[in-house]
Structure formats: structure tokens, C-alpha cells
Amino acid sequence: MEQQIYKGKLTQFHWLKIAKKEELTKNTFSLEFEIPENLKENFKFEAGQFVSVKFQSNGQEVINDYSMTSAPYEKKITLGMKINSSSGTTSQLSRNYNVGDQLLVSEPSGRFTLISKPSEFRTIVGFAAGIGITPILSHFKDILHNEPRTRMFLFFGNKSSEDIAYRQDLENLAKKYSDRLQIFYFYSQEKTANNFFYGRLDEKKLSLIINQILHLDDTDEESTIWDAVDEVLICGKGEMIKNLANACYHHGIPKKNIHFELFEEFNDDIYPIEKEFPLIENVEVEFKMLGKEYQTELPTNKEKILQQLLVQKFPVPYSCKSGICGSCECILEEGEVELLENEYLTEKEEEKGHILACMSIAKSKKIKLNFDLS
User: Fold this and answer.
1) Residue 2 has what pLDDT?
2) Where is each FAD-binding FR-type domain found (predicted)?
């Protein structure tokens, strides 16, 4: 086992052997890992979670997060990966590591998860773009396997038909669960016979989907399929998530039922800030991180805490800056803040004083934070 390292929180890594490597498209591939018997418990996971992989790239040690495409019932760890450039770290991973090699893999984490409800009738809609299909695929496999009364709709966007990762897996699911799963493919750079499926998944496309696909409900003649949607899953780039999450919300889906996973740093708020706060100048901030104490002063409380600490070059942990990943989770030990949005923390954690620094506005003259959660 690797020593614990700090990556937002202390993370445990283990050496795992690559059991299978498969090229999916010209720039995506998958890795399946062999889990030794003594690590089975360590690598139990929920659909939608990810692991971090630690490896050498261009002579440097890097850590990348990759979502699992496998479902828990499959009892294996399979990751989907996209090569964004020939010199990028994932490209190095693809070229330098093969079946039989070992990599340091973290224990599963992440909260892009759903509570299983096998006895209920549910309708779940998924939106994915490109490699964003990976955690969505894990969810769909798991739900279809465990929830015999749940119906699902997937709207999957790619540049072209050649860029679709996991198409065969999706088609196999659609065939096996033809009575409960429908999949629709959209292309942003390939003309289609039906213009409906041409273009990106955004708020305009969602309106068309609601009106032309999720309209008549065979199970309830007085409502539409969209009216029956219980949960929405979204995974892709930040701008897509922002557009679709707000569109779903404006079309009647409560924010608590809209779940998203971000695959890149995104500095915008997913939902617009609807509150105004009294101006506070010269906010005193004390925080603890890796056992060290820090002190500083924020000019005002107009900007969120994490973003202001980063401007001042403090090495505070972060990834998405949008309240999704949880990397900047900390404990508010003194003072008052407003947590604008929260896709990550549980109610119990909030009650214990946990906040996300990237989504918190100072509401008192002094605040004290502790990033050392473990």
C-alpha cells in the first residue's frame, strides 16, 4: 500500500495489475484491473464513483481521476479514459502501461451516486457527452440490474458516430432491457437524416426532447414522461452541465434531483447566485492544512473564499471550483458563511460544520477553517 497522500483529503493507494486493455475509439480506451482477494473490501464501490490513478508521465509523477464504467455487481474495476492530446498525461498512460503492468490506484470515492430503490417505479434520465458516458454507464447498468421497475432514457452527445465510446455496451443494454431503456444519439459535427439529432445537448435541445420524446406517457395518460422523471444524471464538460442543469430546473426538476459529474476544472457557478449579502471588508481568515496554520485577510466578501485564497497563492485543495467534487471540503470552526450551492455534502456533514470553500461567502468579520478532515 502506498503512503497516504493529500489530495483534498488523505487518499490511500494500492498497487493493482492491469488485467485488460481495450481501445474503444481513436482517442479513448479502457483499463480493467485485477483486484487481489485481500483488497476486495477496499475496492467496493457505488455506481458513479471514480478512482485516482498515480503514474509516471514525462518523467513526473501525476495523479488523474477516472470514472468507473463497471457496475458494483460485476465485481471488477474498469475505467474509461480519453486522450485529449498526444503529449497529455492520459496519452502517456496509454502508451507506457499494458496488461500485466501495475499501477497505483486509489480506493473508490465520489458522490455522483444514487440511492437504490428496487421496489419503486422510477423514471431516470441521463445526459452524457463524450467520455462523460463513463459514470452514466455504470449507473445505467447498476439500476437496470437492481431495479426491475425503473425505466431509463439516455441522451448521448458526440462529435460523430465514430467518436462514440462504449456503443456496443450500450446497444447490448438496450437489447437486453428493451422494455425499460431507450438510447438516443446526438452528433455535433455529423449531419443526420433527422435534423433533430444534429447539434449539441443544451437547453434548446432539452425543450425539443421534452416535447418530442418525453411527452406521451403510456403508464399515465394524463401526464407526460417528463412529468414522471425522478432523477436526472448529467456528465460532461462544465458548460454543458450548466446549460442542462438549469434547463432541467426551469422545466420543473428540483435541484436535489439533478445530479452532475464534472470532468474538468470549471470556474463558473452551475446555478446563478440568487442572494445578495451585506458587504464586509477586511475579512480575517485563519485556516489549518496539513498540520500548518495560515493567516490572511480577504479584501471583501464579494468573492468566494477558495477563489480568494487561490489568488493569494495559498496551496488550498481544489479541483472543479463549482461545488461538485468536494476537494475543498473543510470544517468551519469559527465565524459564519453562506454555502451557495452544494452537490457534495450530506445533511449530517453540514450539521457538523462542514462547508465547501469554493461555494462559501464570508458573512462574518473573521472565519476559521480546517482542511484537515482525517
Assistant:
1) 35
2) 11-115
pLDDT at 291 over 90: no
Q: Is 227 left (phi over 0), alpha (psi -120 to 50) or beta?
A: alpha
Question: What residues have CB less than 8 Å from 131, skipping those under 6 apart?
Answer: 28, 80, 81, 82, 165, 263
Instruction: Choose the CATH number for 281-370 among 1.25.40.10, 1.10.10.60, 3.40.50.1980, 3.10.20.30.
Output: 3.10.20.30
**Strands 181-187 and 150-158, how do they pair?**
parallel
Q: Please tell me the predicted confidence (pLDDT) of residue 3.
A: 34
Of 196, 182, 108, give the one whose Cα is nearest residue 144. 182
Please name the residue ranges forming H helices in 219-354: 238-250, 305-311, 347-351
User: Is the separation of the CB atoms in 67 and 261 below 8 Å?
Assistant: yes
Judge: domain 5-106, CATH 2.60.40.10: no
Of 94-98, 229-233, 320-324, the one with minimum mean pLDDT is 320-324
Grid coordinates representing 137 are 454507464
Residue carrying the nine cell digits 432539452? 206
Could you give the CA distance from residue 132 to residue 81 in angstroms, rounded to a whole number?
10
Write down the mean pLDDT value for the chain.
91
Average pLDDT, integer, range 299-314: 92
- pLDDT tens figures, 140-161: 999 999 999 999 999 999 999 9
pLDDT of residue 58: 84
**Run of H or E including 183:** strand 181-187
Q: Which residues of 147-175 are buried (b: 16+ CB within 10 A; e: fewer)?
A: beebbbbbbbbbeeeebbbbbebbeebbe
